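Homework help board

Subject: predicted structure for assignment chain

Our instructor gave us this sequence and asked us to write out the predicted structure in token form, then describe one feature. I got the tokens but I'm not sure how to describe them. Can anyone check?
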Amino acid sequence: MAGTVTTSGTTGSLLASLDPLLRAWLPRQRWFAGKGRPVTGFTPVAVTELLPTGGRLSLYHLLLRVHQPDAPGGEPHPGDCYQLLIGAREALPPRLAPALIGHVDEGPLAGQTVYDALFDPRPAELLLEALRDRTRIGVLRFERGPGQEIRPGLVARLMTGEQSNSSVVYGDTFILKLLRRVLPGVNPDLELPLALARAGCPRVPAPAGWLRAEPAGEPYVLAVLQPYVSGAGDGWELALRELAKGEDFTAEARALGRATAEVHTALARALPTVTLGHSQLQSLVDGMTERLATAVQAVPALRPYEDGLRSAYSALSSLAAEGRTWTAQRVHGDLHLGQCLRSPSGDWSLIDFEGEPARPLAERRMPQPPVRDIAGMLRSFDYAAHSAGRPALDWAHACRAAYCSGYADASGLDPRTDPVLLRAYETDKAVYEVVYEARHRPDWLPVPLSAIRRLAASDPT
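My token output:
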């Protein structure tokens, strides 16, 4: 791959010509986090020319800081940084119409049509070639995992339906997850799979390669390449399919519980663990309580349950005050049925260790009690059960119990034996869901509210 770093003059001219097009295009993308606020400008973090202008295809890699007005009541921030792969052609073939960004009238790409190049197999294949060759271009570092072989000639296709990132599949052999909103620092989406690979955990695909950048000395993880499990189905789709047919899902839930426990055990072996005493637990409880107070202000439907929900946190605080301690470790951080894959052979894998993208990287990398992941999965079974025509509460209860039993099979620890901790984390997750649904999917709000009513009771069982 030929490539150059653009000069400041070229960068300024290029961005000036793209500015009005990107202001209109970015807010329409599913992975753009700043919806509802206009884009007011851009600051280049790094601009790298991957294929020079003047040919049939030009290609630029952009890291852009996007400026928007602060959300009402939000803290001022310098703007999110996004990763873009911009292609330019004289005209787009019909197959690339969904990728259109716009037509450029001035600057180095004057007269060209620019588009999201991940939709185009050839630019996407160039990324894989760069990983195979361990290419370095400007601030970009394409790296291949030790002992990993990436054979040439794999045809690329963009996957659809994702929200926070973009993924490209290469010949049913690899899948490249390209992070759209990027932050400087160590990204758990690469850190944890590498640690699990070193620990010999088969439940998480080992990274075959990754893309990093170091503009101004700040490290960014931009993409991760992993083996693609052909024919695999994600847990959400499988659960809904079995539920629609009236089929039992407890065997799969139990197997998924075992897989989760194996990943937690491997993470505890590979990375440091910490003991949470009173002060550390109180800090976690304070965070939960603060999130609840904010949620009640945002969603008045929570107000009748506020005292009951707060009791879930105070009960945990009381245990800590009595001297109870818990072990915290690195966890998945955003575990639900959609983050799990079942291979055609029936084996479960866990994917997407990025954590909740809205949270700061430092927070996502903090050790947590493993029950945080467990609570997320239990809430996911509830969501699946409410996706049926009529809520399948018995189905959800059976799956939740089977999952916890499977976790106990592999770890020796049944999360139900620590009901106060489990209730606190499941409450925190349900409160988060209420706020999310109220803002983005009001029709789904009854799903977490049904859990809120249960969790607010003095006896959560």
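Reply (TA_rk): Your tokens look well-formed. For the description, you could write something like this. The chain has a mean pLDDT of 93. That's the kind of observation they're looking for.
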